[in-house]
Amino acid sequence: PHVFGIQEALYNQIQDAEKAFPRYKRVGEGRENGITKGEFSPIFFDTLLYKSISSGTFWLSQTPKVPGSMGWDAACTRVVSWVQLRTIATGKLFFVFNTHFDHMGTMARRNSARLLLHAVDSLAAKSPAIIMGDFNADPSSEPYCILTRKSDPAHLTNAFYLAENADTPFYTYTGFKVGGLTGENIDFIFLKPALKVLKYFVNTYHSGDYYPSDHLPVKVILVL
After folding, report:
1. Residue 4's CB: how many other CB atoms inside 10 A?
2. pLDDT of residue 183
3. SS3 annotation, 85-154
4. How far apart are CA 64 and CA 78, in angstroms?
5. Does pTM top 0.85 for this prediction?
6. Percent of the chain whose predicted confidence (pLDDT) is above 70
7. Residue 55, helix vs strand vs coil
């Protein structure tokens, strides 16, 4: 991929990814101290194609600038990492956001959705934005509805609904064992504004018994 985000990555896993993708640059910090401690929600991008203009990490809490801060009724500290990229070939600017919402706190997911919307609107403004992550919320949930409510001028659009071609099993969370869970659709790529999406697909590759992760990768091919 030209750009990719991962969730739940510990620092040693970040280092493995950096070794595996030597020409890629990574943005994003550990959620526990804003350096290397705790899980990351990092973004990697191909430096042959893009140049980083600005980047940062904020916490999904009442004090988003305070490293390690935990918000509302969350069970864990949660973050959003973001980067503004310039396309080297064309000079086009766009933003990428990557996050992982709390898996327990109802209030935390609700307010995380509101905070994320505000951040995308404030940082990206009129620039194209790609927002991806494990939202721990399915399409019928309150956080998903907050993010995609069309009456809100800052709303996001699920890339699936913009795709000219879509190949997806309609679930992304499976557990590690193949056939072990029926699956939930809780991982998404959102866009703002509604960009041209050539293809949307969920990668169901597995070894026969196990998936590489307990979540399936979601991928889009889009035109800025």
Report:
1. 18
2. 86
3. EEECCCCCEEEEEEEECCCCCHHHHHHHHHHHHHHHHHHHCCCCEEEEEECCCCCCCHHHHHHHCCCCCC
4. 10
5. yes
6. 100
7. strand
